[in-house]
Amino acid sequence: MKSIIPFIVKYNPIKKLAIIQFEKKTDKIYKSFELQYIDGESYGKGYRIVAYRKDNHVDVYDDSSLHFLEDEKFNVAERGLNKHIQVPIKKAYLEKQNNCEYISFSFKDLENRKIDFFIK
User: Fold this and answer.
1) In a domain, 102, yes or no
2) What is the rounded average pLDDT of the residues 45-61?
3) Does 62 map to a domain?
4) What is the DSSP track for 97-113?
5) pTM for the whole thing?
6) Quick check: 10 pLDDT over 70?
7) Residue 107 lies in a domain
8) How many domains does the chain contain in total?
């Protein structure tokens, strides 16, 4: 028996993911970041930062090591995409060692602000 699914499913090959919410100290533009480690044939290997904005749109920052897909859709996130750009993401780390999580990244946002992030 054949089954027909009436829709097309596209997915990103996300291998690791961390969501960081700003609860105590808010930013003027962003309310949270989502750090993703992507490893897939059409993307390559590298990090992506989905930045959730206070206006309920998202900015997506792809590391320069990833293959940039200009027509990629982000309609499932909040109200959809504001900007999707490729930037160098430095000091990116998302690992667990000795029962301790380490999350770090550094990049420049759309307003050319240097964002340095580290959690242990």
Assistant:
1) no
2) 95
3) yes
4) ETTEEEEEEEEE-TT--
5) 0.86
6) no
7) no
8) 1
Q: Give the 3-state secondary structure of residue 2.
A: coil
Q: Report the pLDDT averaged over residues 7-17.
A: 77
- Better pLDDT: 71 or 104: 104
- Domain range enclosing 53: 14-90
Helix (H, G, I), strand (E, B) or coil at 7: coil
Do 53 and 79 meet the contact criterion of CB atoms below 8 Å apart? no
| Length, in residues, of the chain | 120
Q: Greater confidence, 71 or 5?
A: 71
> Rounded to whole angstroms, how far apart are CA atoms 6 and 117?
42
- 36-43's contacts with Cβ under 8 Å and 24+ in sequence apart are 36/12, 37/92, 37/94, 38/12, 38/13, 38/14, 38/66, 39/13, 39/15, 40/12, 40/13, 41/13, 42/67, 42/69, 43/12, 43/13, 43/67, 43/69
- Average pLDDT score over residue span 39-51: 92
Residue 89, classed as helix, strand or coil, is coil
